[in-house]
């Protein structure tokens, strides 16, 4: 979509690893560890390259409203910045409180002040606010770790990058180390549980189930005697290591004790203790699908303020909120990606329709059309859309069209001829002797097929680039499923086309439970499809809404 | 949502008739007619009057409050005297309130479905219950109506959701702490569901027969006494009998309740080669109906039998007739031995229905068949190992959707289509 985060990740990655490499391409996930300093530099240089962008640094103290809509912001130094649209991205700063054991301090991040004035202001506006929390592990000094005693996890030999515009990593690739907690570690933590901020009753915010603190892991999975920890360097030159897997809100002395009970960390020095942070978020059900607050026109929210967690989640919302803010300013229609088009569509629809009960993270299993929503075809799904919106540069456009042309040529070669089972057998492909003729694409879908075998049948295929061959093999593998999912997606589009009038009166629909009425009023679904995804919605209730829509149409016709 | 009303009992003379009013204005309508209503869930005797104050009837009035009613809406039921004239006068009086309209056929049930008070299978069960004629049909319909299909579907769903969760965990948390091998549990869960689905499919044929009735064909050579036998079972002369061979040409049916089993006995033309064109057609029809029947009884003429008759189809029971003349076998004329024949038929059919399942409608069978096919593909992918986890997940979701469709947990258009096209059942 023309965002810059993928580019910055590629410029600063020091350990690229493709997750689920052994599984199907639809669920492979590119992952990288970025060098903090290089990432920051990459983002700043990419931003500096943007024309028409002015960056003003300062703490926002207030938003300025005029006639119920946003008209600008006020900084702490009382200066006013007027704006047609505002995108608010408060991260963990909004009313942030940091907990280490029973120590509690205001803060948006260690060493940074929280954003309290703005939090008070949002509370006064009567927005539905809630509290979430997230944890961080203690940071360790690299030179204090016994690396030679630990199992190492290297980067991939053939790194999978984030942007289609990158072809190789810029920075040197490094390894992580893997170590484990042990019964002694668990004993130390168990003995001190009451001193943990979370277990001592100091925290009200809800944390994510899938990324538990070490205290949670030990309490909830008491049968496990060991948990895995990845020791990740924060940068090539940095002396700080991020131990992934032991986030905590225990007091510092307990953190030192349990860290040092772990193999390889016996002499580890903690450069900064782990802490839990609680912050405000706005119930995303109060947003529309363009991430605009329904109650305050032209005020957009993105990132942790909407109840999400994770970098990609925040980046995707930032992109869409920014895009829609620009569109609103230009008087253009909002841009909404669908669930069948992009994970962005899945996430935003989940947020505004279902809300969040814990910090929201994107999982592939949240997508109904997972087999079509792959990292490998992200450009095929979205680059043209982005181009239509004026989001991409000339270089990306050229690369994209070249690739599409190459893929088309490859597809034509594969579809060009059909082979009998005997002919396939002569190329070393054993399939049922069912007399059925199969195209190159059909044959490519068989498991354990070798490109060389296809080349025997279709010598022109050998001339396709390895990337194109790989891409076509993936298409072949999922073709039957993707075709079917596209039919499902068409059904979805039909429901999405049933627009629910904004002034529909749910209270007057007999037979809807009060609970559902409340949810419908809160979510204000824009389409019947969206209404169907509200938690607890029944086909019967949808039928009632649909029949009301048709009744209203009749009356107004 | 409009308020609707209709007679809930059969039209015609009866001791009591019940008028049901359902919808947001039901209580208002009730108050206009009866002056005041009893508390929800209670009943009270009231004089019903129309808008001119004209006395209509003395009625027992029942009041129900949403959601605790059959439809899930506010409901008033008026138990009146089962007189055609009273019913008509009351209908006019309700319509004159301007607050309610006459219900369409099946509309109360449809509202119960839309309000989530009944699932799709329960609606089918209710239709079956209203149509039930025999004890076994009653039991079968009650099982469906009381939510038996939901119990089955929920059980499968729980297993499948667990299996999906395990598979998804290996996909979405590959890099985290889920080192346990989920394959054995997933395999077990899939086998479980497949077994349950197959059990339903195996019992479907019998259950369907309990619902729609079994057929017992009476076949044999001409003049063996088949029609006399049928008349005896019917207790009246439905078939023309004579001593002329080839009297019966068409297939005649007699429906009886055999110890709770709905059974239709078929009287068929005597099987022989005939020169008569019409009789030949009758014989052909007798053969095809007999082949499709659940049980075939062969009656042999005890007087003339030379052991040479060949029905050329499998036969379940054989009897020699005309015992009143030969002293051997059964006599259709006197009724001797007929009870024993019925007992034999009952025994055969009872054995078969012992494996009866909840699935009893063609719609159920189609869904179960599809679930069976999808489960088999899922198991094939599963045995292929790690590579196909994401494809396995697709298959498993399909199975869940398919089994959910048994109780109507599917997308709204499909449910609406199904209900609005198929169901138009008793009020």
Q: What sequence of helices (H) and strands (E) makes up the elements of chain B?
A: EEHEEEHEHHHHHEHEEHEEHHHHH
CATH class of the largest domain in chain A: Alpha Beta
Helix content of chain B: 40-55%
User: How many structurally independent domains of chain A?
Assistant: 5
Please give the number of β-strands of chain B: 11
- What oligomeric arrangement do these chains adopt? heterodimer
Reading off the top of the CATH hierarchy, the class of the largest domain in chain B is best stated as Alpha Beta
CATH architecture of the largest domain in chain A: 3-Layer(bba) Sandwich
Which strand order spans the largest sheet of chain A, edge to edge or round the barrel? 11-12-13-14-10-15
Low-pLDDT parts of chain A are none
Walk me through this protein's architecture:
- The complex is a heterodimer of chains A (557) and B (427).
- Chain A has helices at 5-12, 36-48, 116-124, 183-191, 214-220, 252-260, 311-330, 343-354, 378-388, 394-416, 421-426, 440-444, 451-457, 466-497, 514-523, 528-532, 539-556; strands at residues 13-19, 29-34, 60-66, 69-75, 80-82, 86-88, 97-100, 103-106, 129-135, 139-141, 151-153, 176-180, 228-233, 240-244, 270-272, 276-282, 299-301, 418-419, 438-439.
- By secondary structure, chain A is an alpha+beta fold.
- Chain A is globular, with a radius of gyration of 27 Å.
- Chain B has three domains: 3-103, Gyrase A, domain 2 (2-Layer Sandwich); 135-210 and 361-420, tRNA modification GTPase MnmE domain 2 (Four Helix Bundle (Hemerythrin (Met), subunit A)), CATH 1.20.120; 214-353, Rossmann fold (3-Layer(aba) Sandwich).
- Helices cover 47% and strands 17% of the residues of chain B.
- Chain B has helices at 26-34, 84-96, 107-114, 120-131, 135-145, 148-172, 183-212, 226-234, 277-292, 323-326, 338-353, 362-383, 389-404, 412-422; strands at 3-7, 14-22, 43-49, 55-64, 75-82, 100-102, 214-219, 252-258, 261-267, 295-300, 317-320.
- Chain B is flat, with a radius of gyration of 29 Å.
- The interface between A and B is large, with 38 and 38 residues.
């Amino acid at each position: 979509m023309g965002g810059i985060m993928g580019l910055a990740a590629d410029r600063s990655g020091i350990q690229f690893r493709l997750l689920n490499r052994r599984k199907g391409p639809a669920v492979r996930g590119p992952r990288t560890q970025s060098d903090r300093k290089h990432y920051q530099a990459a983002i700043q240089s990419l931003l500096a390259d943007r024309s028409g962008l002015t960056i003003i640094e300062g703490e926002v103290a207030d938003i300025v409203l005029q006639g119920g809509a946003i008209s600008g912001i006020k900084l702490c130094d009382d200066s006013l910045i007027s704006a047609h649209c505002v995108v608010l991205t408060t991260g963990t700063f909004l009313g942030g409180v940091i907990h280490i054991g029973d120590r509690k301090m205001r803060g948006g991040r260690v060493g940074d002040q929280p954003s309290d004035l703005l939090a008070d202001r949002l509370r006064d506006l009567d927005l539905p606010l809630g509290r979430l929390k997230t944890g961080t592990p203690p940071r360790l000094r690299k030179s204090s770790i016994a690396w030679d005693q630990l199992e190492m996890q290297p980067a991939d030999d053939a790194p999978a990058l984030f942007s289609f515009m990158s072809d190789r990593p810029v920075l040197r690739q490094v390894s992580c180390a893997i170590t484990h907690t042990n019964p002694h570690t668990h004993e130390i933590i168990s003995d001190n549980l009451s001193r943990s901020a979370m277990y001592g009753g100091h925290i009200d915010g809800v944390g994510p189930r899938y990324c538990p603190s070490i205290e949670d892991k030990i309490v909830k999975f008491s049968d496990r005697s060991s948990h895995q920890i990845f020791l990740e360097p924060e940068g090539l030159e940095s002396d700080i290591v991020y131990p992934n897997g032991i986030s905590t809100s225990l007091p510092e002395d307990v953190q030192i004790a349990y860290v040092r009970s772990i193999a390889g960390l016996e002499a580890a020095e903690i450069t900064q203790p782990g802490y839990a942070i609680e912050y405000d978020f706005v119930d995303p059900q109060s947003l529309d699908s363009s991430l605009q607050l329904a109650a305050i026109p032209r005020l957009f929210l993105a990132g942790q303020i909407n109840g999400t967690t994770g970098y990609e989640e925040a980046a995707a919302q930032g992109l869409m909120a920014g895009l829609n803010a620009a569109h609103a300013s230009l008087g253009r229609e909002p841009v909404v990606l669908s669930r069948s088009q992009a994970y962005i569509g899945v996430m935003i629809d989940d947020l505004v329709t279902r809300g969040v009960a814990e910090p929201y993270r994107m999982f592939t299993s949240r997508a109904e059309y997972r087999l079509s929503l792959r990292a490998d075809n992200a450009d095929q799904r979205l680059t043209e859309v982005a181009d239509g919106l004026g989001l991409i540069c000339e270089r990306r456009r050229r690369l994209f069209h070249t690739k599409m042309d190459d893929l088309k040529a490859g597809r034509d070669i594969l579809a060009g001829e059909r082979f009998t089972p005997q002919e396939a057998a002569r190329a070393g492909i054993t399939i049922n002797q069912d007399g059925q003729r199969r195209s190159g694409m059909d044959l490519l879908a068989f498991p354990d097929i070798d490109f060389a075998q296809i080349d025997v049948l279709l010598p022109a295929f050998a001339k396709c680039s390895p990337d194109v061959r790989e891409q076509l093999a993936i298409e072949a593998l999922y073709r039957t499923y993707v075709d079917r999912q596209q039919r499902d997606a068409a059904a979805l589009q039909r429901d999405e086309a049933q627009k629910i009038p904004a002034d529909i009166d749910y209270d007057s629909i007999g037979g809807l439970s009060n609970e559902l009425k409340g949810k419908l009023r809160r979510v204000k679904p824009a389409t019947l499809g969206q209404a169907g995804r509200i938690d607890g919605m029944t086909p019967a209730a949808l039928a009632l809404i649909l029949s009301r829509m048709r009744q209203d149409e009749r009356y107004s016709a | 949502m409009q308020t609707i009303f209709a007679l809930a009992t059969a039209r015609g003379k009866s001791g009591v008739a019940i008028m049901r009013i359902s919808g947001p204005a039901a209580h208002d309508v009730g108050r206009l007619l009866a002056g005041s209503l009893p508390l929800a869930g209670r009943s009270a005797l009231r004089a019903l009057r129309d808008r001119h104050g004209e006395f209509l009837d003395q009625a027992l009035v029942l009041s129900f409050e949403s959601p605790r009613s059959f439809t899930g809406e506010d409901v008033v039921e008026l138990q009146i005297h089962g007189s055609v004239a009273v019913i008509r006068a009351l209908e006019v009086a309700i319509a004159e309130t301007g607050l309610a309209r006459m219900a369409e056929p099946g509309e109360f049930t449809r509202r119960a479905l839309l309000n989530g008070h009944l699932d799709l299978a329960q609606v089918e069960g209710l239709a079956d219950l209203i149509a039930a004629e025999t004890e076994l049909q009653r039991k079968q319909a009650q099982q469906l109506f009381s939510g038996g299909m939901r119990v089955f579907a929920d059980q499968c769903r729980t297993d499948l959701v667990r299996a999906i969760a395990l598979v998804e965990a290996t996909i979405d948390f590959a890099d985290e702490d889920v080192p346990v091998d989920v394959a054995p549990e997933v395999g077990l869960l899939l086998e479980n569901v497949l077994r349950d689905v197959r059990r339903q499919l195996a019992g479907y044929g019998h259950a369907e027969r309990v619902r729609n009735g079994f057929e017992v064909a009476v076949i044999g050579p001409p003049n063996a006494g088949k029609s006399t036998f049928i008349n005896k079972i019917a207790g009246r002369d439905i078939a023309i009998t004579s001593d002329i061979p080839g009297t019966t040409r068409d297939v005649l049916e007699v429906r009886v309740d055999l110890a709770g089993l709905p059974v239709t006995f078929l009287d068929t033309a005597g099987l022989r080669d005939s020169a008569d064109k019409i009789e030949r057609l009758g014989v052909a029809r007798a053969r095809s109906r007999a082949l499709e029947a659940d049980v075939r009884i062969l009656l042999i003429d005890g007087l003339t039998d030379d052991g040479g008759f060949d029905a050329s189809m499998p036969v379940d029971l054989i009897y020699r007739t005309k015992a009143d003349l030969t002293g051997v076998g059964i006599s259709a004329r006197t009724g001797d031995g007929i009870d024993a024949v019925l007992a034999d038929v009952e025994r055969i059919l009872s054995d078969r229905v012992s494996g009866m399942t909840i699935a009893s409608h063609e719609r159920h069978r189609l869904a179960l068949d599809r679930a069976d096919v999808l489960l088999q593909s899922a198991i094939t992918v599963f045995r292929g190992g790690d590579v196909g986890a994401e494809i396995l997940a697709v298959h498993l979701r399909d199975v869940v959707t398919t089994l959910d469709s048994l109780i109507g947990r599917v997308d709204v258009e499909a449910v609406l289509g199904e209900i609005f096209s198929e169901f138009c059942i008793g009020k």
